[in-house]
Design brief:
With 443 residues, the protein is mainly alpha-helical. The chain has 3 domains: 90 residues, Orthogonal Bundle (Fumarase C, Chain B, domain 1); 258 residues, Fumarase/aspartase (Central domain) (Fumarase C, Chain A, domain 2, Up-down Bundle); 35 residues, no CATH class. Helix content is 59%, strand content 5%. Strand 3, helix 8 and strand 4 form a beta-alpha-beta unit. Helix 6 packs parallel to helix 9. It is elongated, with a radius of gyration of 28 Å. 38% of the residues are buried.
Length: 443
């Protein structure tokens, strides 16, 4: 059953190709499709396209379907094209003629759009919560291990002293910046396209402000043509935000893979959180972080994949857009899994003590010695030359002491300020308003 079908049966080969993975992926949007219909039908009653009695019947059965979805008892039948058709078919089968009225004033185009935006809002909340949990874990580790020094590298060469306070805190602050991009994606997503119909509006006197309020959207996509153009653009912007988080995770995972290597030996994890070799009994491989690195590198390609899929499409709806779900939906799941397991792994990390007491790290302190001379009045370039000559002739003797006090340095991590910045971003998402609107719709 297709809500657009007339009296001609579509060729089965064509139908199989055009439907693709839609049924499978649409299951993730099922409850959001019902939410959109709950809001839309309330609006239809206010403009006399549904009677009060019809609305009561429709709303009750939509809520029954919503409960079935939440309980895992909802399927999209093979004879049905997508989730929108399934919900409308169930409604009509159960309540009769009133179910046939719910599509008044909307097209499958804006129905898909509102479903996607509702779905993306929920996904963004999940990703933000997972990121916030990892952020808090990193800040806790940064504060706990702030006095444990570790080599800092440039060009993968020993450079200057760093600390695990700095290392954990760096990735925490990176996640805070990533949430700025996610907030931008949220703001784009949190606008209501419902009522744009096929992209050119409707001759019905729709109250789009009402559905915006009922669904908890912050505002409308006002121009109906632009509302339809939001399909693809919303996905691309969300993918860019996800890519930023993924880039942070991938870089952090690469550091872990280096630091756990025996030639570094800075960190370790319990044996049960690593994997072994089929022939080398000594191996403890960081497979979790290698997979985080690879998964997140794949997610970093996502914005470009989406951009290429929508490049040069003119305004209006095109079936190309259907395929975006195949790229984006699994990536959302993957990123959440990476965030969750990274947090778990860091809950079980062990940091080695006294790393810099190894003589091979003596040259890390060369800049400290140069700076000490400069503070005594020696011109910096002259101090640099003196220490360079000491290193060349083998007389360099570092004190092993560091005195970093400026903002963001080893001795002044500014974790409170980084946490405040993160909390400021998180406070702007407005998840509470959205969740309250959804609760009111389904109660």
């Amino acid at each position: 059953m297709k809500i657009w079908q007339k009296n001609i049966d579509v060729n089965q080969f064509v139908e199989s190709f055009t439907v693709g993975k839609d049924r499978e992926l649409d299951l993730q949007m099922a409850k959001f499709d019902v939410l959109g219909s709950l809001a839309h039908t309330q609006m239809l009653e206010t403009i006399n396209l549904l009677t009060a009695e019809e609305l009561k019947t429709v709303q009750q059965e939509l809520k029954n379907i919503y409960a079935e979805i939440e309980a895992g008892n909802f399927t999209i039948e093979d004879s049905v094209e997508d989730v929108h058709s399934q919900v409308e078919w169930l409604l009509t089968q159960r309540i009769g003629e009133a179910g046939k009225k719910i599509h008044s004033g909307r097209s499958r185009n804006d129905q898909v759009l509102v479903d996607l935006k509702l779905f993306f809002r929920a996904c963004i909340e999940d990703m933000v919560n997972q990121t916030s949990t990892l952020f808090n874990q990193l800040i806790e580790l940064s504060n706990t291990h702030k006095d444990k020094l570790v080599p800092g590298y440039t060009h993968l060469q020993i450079a200057m002293p760093s600390s695990f306070g700095l290392w954990f805190g760096a990735y925490a602050e990176s996640l805070a910046d990533d949430m700025e991009l996610m907030l931008a994606a949220w703001k784009i997503t949190n606008k209501n396209p419902l009522g744009s119909a096929a992209g050119y509006g409707s001759s019905f006197p729709l109250n789009r402000t009402l559905t915006t309020e009922l669904l908890g959207f912050e505002s409308l996509n006002y121009n109906v043509v632009y509302a339809q153009m939001g399909r693809g653009k919303t996905e691309r912007i969300l993918a860019q935000a996800m890519s930023a988080v993924a880039a942070t995770l991938a870089k952090m995972a690469m550091d872990v893979c280096l630091f756990i290597n025996q030639n570094f030996g800075f960190i370790s994890f319990p044996a049960e959180l690593t994997t072994g070799s089929s022939i080398m009994p000594h191996k403890k491989n960081p497979d979790v972080f290698e997979l985080i690195r690879s998964r997140c590198n794949k997610i970093q390609a996502l914005p470009n994949e989406i951009a290429m899929m929508i490049t040069n499409l003119p305004s209006g709806y095109h079936r190309d857009l259907q395929l975006l779900k195949e790229n984006l939906f699994p990536a959302i799941t993957s990123l959440n899994e990476c965030l969750e397991i990274a947090t778990f792994m860091f809950q079980n990390i062990t940091i080695k003590d006294d790393i810099l007491k190894d003589k091979k790290y003596d040259y890390l302190f060369s800049v400290e010695v140069v700076n000490d001379l400069a503070l005594q009045g020696v011109p910096f370039r002259e101090a640099y030359k003196i220490v360079g000559e000491q290193i060349e002739n083998g007389t360099f003797a570092p004190s092993g002491q560091i005195h970093h006090t400026h903002e963001g340095s080893i001795g002044n991590l500014c974790n409170e300020q980084i946490t405040a910045a993160m909390q400021d971003v998180l406070s702007q998402f407005g998840f509470g308003k959205v969740n309250k609107a959804i609760e009111d719709l389904v109660k």
